[in-house]
Specification:
TIM Barrel; 510 residues; alpha/beta; 3 domains; nine-stranded mixed β-sheet
């Protein structure tokens, strides 16, 4: 059976979908993959996060779906509208059944079944293989675990499937390029993906504090042991009885994947581990990883971590292994907001962690700290406490700032709905991007901490009386006007290039 797998995400690594493709191939099926990354987020964010696929793009995808028997699409909440349009077009032009999987369908399967024919909740590898097997054999599909569907208007909610405990049983992500295509927004063409084109797409984004080199993305584990009230992991755990424990791949299995990367993608200069908490490994696991990684891979790597897992001993091990950068979720410095988020670490512990990381400079790059802004329950005093924490963390460091989005099913979503803070879900949640922050004095001040601004000046600007004086509606309104002007000036060159390329494309078509 031939299955078309589609990713709408800007990152064409799309690890989960590539593993599903490899899993299907191992079971005897064939796959085609289409990646539809957006190219101009700077322009689109001037309006909102969403954009619409042109008729030409939709038709190109439809042409590649004519010879398949099943279409699978991965969906996150803020891609819902784009995937909705795409699914309606594919069902209208091909008649091929469509299955949705990913975070949003796992949390809101009933909503998704108004659009898709099937929904896979929770992990999808075994479910989609069983679905493909039964469709190929023309057998009943109504009782497949993790699969939801409608039959004669009745919603069928099949029971949960046990999660995959042995992650070494999973194949490596599918990068064989035999039948993979990627959208080039400059020409609105679907191009056949190969190693060189992958290289071009991976290098289109300028190096930043988080992307200092061309990198390959993977994970060493699945799961997260924490219960943050803003996070979808907590919802998935409650809704589908997922374990709180972290499931880890063996170091041998992980290194095997990375050896393939070194051999087949020699332009890769760094590895990114996207585990929710890479540092949750035991000391024995960390030491074994170090020994194998240094011997077989020996590339710089970056990872994510949670403050409570960072110790001097683990830092020594991972830095010796090649860790070049670390990204840590702090989110807030306010005790009351920490309680709201389910983030119990104390500021003195965070500062001690920052001092520990500072000792490893310049062996590692300055750390990246994540913080959440735009919380409607956060008071000015709460924000000042977070700013105070930042002035006490050793510099240099970079901040990755997020705007709080009430994703469906989370505890904060439930509270916001109860208090009437959500008026239009589509506009306020589905069509929002979590790194598009509000323009005001406090948020501007947060962004200065990643700049080369003297700490003494930041301390002054973060003082309670200064913040309360400058964070007023009239001043924030002026800042929004100035930012709008700056943004439009900044994207003029991009708009001009887009217009010129569109003219060139039209000439070629004529």
């Amino acid at each position: 059976m031939k299955i078309l797998l589609i990713s709408p995400y800007s990152d064409i690594s799309t690890l989960g979908l590539r593993i599903i493709s490899a899993y299907l191939k191992r079971a005897g099926h064939s796959t085609r993959m289409i990646f539809l990354p957006y190219l101009y987020p700077e322009i689109e964010s001037m309006v909102d996060f969403q954009h619409r696929y042109t008729p030409e793009i939709l038709n190109s995808v439809s042409e590649l779906a004519q010879d398949v028997q099943l279409i699978g699409i991965t969906v996150m909440t803020n891609y819902f509208t784009m995937v909705e349009d795409l699914t309606h077009h594919l069902k209208r032009t091909t008649g091929v059944p469509v299955i949705w999987g990913g975070v949003h369908p796992s949390i809101r399967p009933e909503e998704c079944l108004h659009i898709a024919d099937f929904v896979c909740v929770s992990e999808g590898e075994a479910t989609i293989v069983e679905l493909a097997d039964r469709l190929a054999a023309d057998e009943a599909i109504d009782d497949i675990p993790n699969l939801w569907l409608k039959r004669n208007g009745e919603l069928i909610r099949n029971p949960a499937r046990s999660v995959i405990e042995d992650l070494d049983s999973l194949p490596y992500p599918d990068y064989d390029f035999n039948d993979q295509f990627v959208l080039d927004w400059q020409t609105e063409e679907l191009k056949k993906l190969d190693k060189e084109l992958l290289h071009q797409f991976l290098t289109r984004e300028r190096p930043t504090k988080a992307r200092a080199a061309l990198f390959y993305q993977t994970i060493a584990s699945r799961g997260c042991p924490y219960g943050c009230t803003f996070c979808c992991w907590n919802v998935l755990r409650r809704k589908h009885k997922l374990p709180r424990t972290i499931r880890r791949r063996s170091n041998q299995h992980l290194i095997g994947e990375l050896k393939w990367v070194r051999q087949e993608l020699p332009y890769i200069r760094e590895i990114t581990f996207s585990d929710d908490s890479f540092f949750a490994a035991t000391l024995d696991e960390a030491r074994q990883f170090r020994d194998l990684y240094k011997a077989e891979i020996n590339l710089p790597f970056q990872c994510l971590a949670e403050p409570r897992t960072i110790t001097r001993e683990k830092m020594e091990i991972f830095v010796d292994a090649g860790m070049a950068n670390i990204q840590i979720g702090i989110q807030t410095g306010s005790p009351s907001v920490k309680k709201m988020y389910g983030r119990p670490q104390k500021n003195k512990e965070i500062i001690a962690m920052g001092e520990l990381l500072h000792e490893f400079l310049p062996r590692i790059r300055p750390p990246i700290y994540d913080f959440i802004l735009d919380n409607p329950w956060e008071t000015v005093d709460d924000k000042i406490e977070t700013l105070s924490l930042l002035t006490r963390l050793p510099r240099p460091y970079f901040l990755q700032l997020f705007s709080l989005v009430f994703y469906p099913g989370t505890a904060l979503y439930d509270r916001a709905m109860k208090e009437g803070l959500i008026i239009n879900e589509r506009e306020e949640i589905y069509n929002q991007q979590y790194n598009t922050r509000k323009i005001n004095y406090v948020n501007l001040l947060f962004s200065l901490f990643s700049r080369n601004v003297p700490t003494s000046l930041l301390r002054y600007l973060s003082k309670s009386d200064v913040v309360k004086t400058l964070n007023k509606p009239s001043i924030n309104a002026l800042l929004r006007v100035l930012y709008k002007i700056f943004s439009r000036l900044r994207v003029i060159p991009l708009l001009v290039r887009r217009a010129l390329k569109q003219q060139k494309l039209e000439k070629l078509r004529n």
